[in-house]
């Protein structure tokens, strides 16, 4: 019987997942730990470290009752009957597999810490997205302790999307739990099933062997990203031919075999997961000698890179082949609406391209702080920080960002951009006033009537 659940990693997944689990399982104590003190402080405050609609209300209901946050990793490992590993698994930036393989050093460290501190039996749950067969390495580290406790390792990948995390957790399409298929493994699976069954109907909880569960997560993200790259590929053809990508998406999406979701053409997908997980899949295929399969999935990322640079190039070519010294306003920096997360956001790469062409960029985003934007640019290492700071600035007002701009680029689909006073924006811009809608959220006809020269992804002239 599970009384205490520990989660290592208080990030975008660990925080919201444990908060919802705690709300739905008031009889279980949840302890979320992280090495990042400021992140933990924020989880305990009224300013949570991540922005997610509805999250604060959930945290407020459970925090201090059966949901606790701290940096006491050792204590939390000792007390947890079940321990979730929800740490980051970024793309490796060094050595073998650099630029492709998942960097598992944080996960390995967690396994080593669990092995060191645990003094009774534990169920260890992989919540992080991991390459198939990682559980084997975790088991090996855990079994090497030799001091008594027995461990069961489960895979329970997370399918929430940022911006809708609470909704996705509350009404999950499905929950996936993989484990060993022997008696002890099946019993451990059942313990986790019970935790979810507090609010998820049993028929939506899928149980599998551990390798299927690990691989399903990478596969789900690869399929989702593939749909976006597919529609983005068609958007280029639409622009060349006069077809309209929204009409095409609607026409194909009504085929029940294809379905309407995830067919929104855009400036390119971002976020911490899609690119990382596909590259990881590519690496795994290569590792197993499946080179054709690797090339197949790699194209999804290649097409996404093309879509981002195609958008940047369109801005430059439309502005008479140079943006040098011109002011470009970016509406949005986050990788999608309703989040403050900027990881792999298309804005970063399009900004970099325009800065290479000596543009001045003024950014407005309702949730992203300026400091984060500079950290994102610094990671690219394209130019010295002073130059980024001279040419790239952030304002906390959309109208200010667009004032005296030669062009506006809509980079994130924040709802508030739809209701801006576009006449006012037009009046305060340089003419001709160019507008590049990278998210297909604006009324093209209305803006053209005001006087804007509008370019919308996937729409021919
Ligand atoms: P994150 O970077 O937001 O959070 C990870 C946290 O783990 C950080 O706060 C870090 O300080 C902490 N950490 C790292 N090593 C630690 C250690 N040894 N002890 C204690 N804390 C440690 O990452 P995230 O977005 O929450 O993603 C976590 C995992 O979930 C990744 O594998 C990711 O691929 C997967 N995932 C993410 C999403 C998403 O939408 N972000 C969705 C599904 C799955
Ligand atoms: C994704 C998966 O959806 C989720 O199941 C997984 O757990 C983590 O990775 P996330 O990255 O948070 O979630 O957001 P998602 O809604 O999938 O969007 C990813 C990117 O694709 C965003 O940049 C978004 O703007 C873009 N996108 C999404 C499109 O360009 N078109 C679409 O139709 C959908």
TrEMBL record:
GO biological-process terms attached to the record: glycosaminoglycan biosynthetic process; UDP-glucuronate biosynthetic process
Pfam families assigned: UDPG_MGDP_dh (PF00984), UDPG_MGDP_dh_C (PF03720), UDPG_MGDP_dh_N (PF03721)
Pathway: Nucleotide-sugar biosynthesis; UDP-alpha-D-glucuronate biosynthesis; UDP-alpha-D-glucuronate from UDP-alpha-D-glucose: step 1/1
Enzyme class: oxidoreductase
Active site positions: 273 (nucleophile)
Keywords in alphabetical order: NAD, Oxidoreductase
InterPro entries the record matches: 6-PGluconate_DH-like_C_sf, NAD(P)-bd_dom_sf, UDP-Glc/GDP-Man, UDP-Glc/GDP-Man_DH_C, UDP-Glc/GDP-Man_DH_C_sf, UDP-Glc/GDP-Man_DH_dimer, UDP-Glc/GDP-Man_DH_N, UDPglc_DH_euk
Enzyme Commission number: 1.1.1.22
SMART domains xrefs: UDPG_MGDP_dh_C
Gene3D superfamilies xrefs: Cytochrome c1, transmembrane anchor, C-terminal, NAD(P)-binding Rossmann-like Domain
GO MF term (any one): UDP-glucose 6-dehydrogenase activity
Binding residues for substrate: 158-162, 217-221, 257, 264-270, 335-336, 439
Substrates-to-products reaction catalysed: UDP-alpha-D-glucose + 2 NAD(+) + H2O = UDP-alpha-D-glucuronate + 2 NADH + 3 H(+)
Entry keyword Glycoprotein: no
Residue ranges of coiled coil: none
Sequence intervals crossing the membrane: none
Chain residues that bind NAD(+): 9-14, 34, 39, 87-91, 128-129, 162, 273-276, 343
Ranges for domain UDP-glucose/GDP-mannose dehydrogenase C-terminal: 329-444
Protein's job: Catalyzes the conversion of UDP-glucose into UDP-glucuronate, one of the precursors of teichuronic acid.
Family, per entry: Belongs to the UDP-glucose/GDP-mannose dehydrogenase family.
Name of the protein in question: UDP-glucose 6-dehydrogenase
Lineage: Bacteria, Pseudomonadati, Balneolota, Balneolia, Balneolales
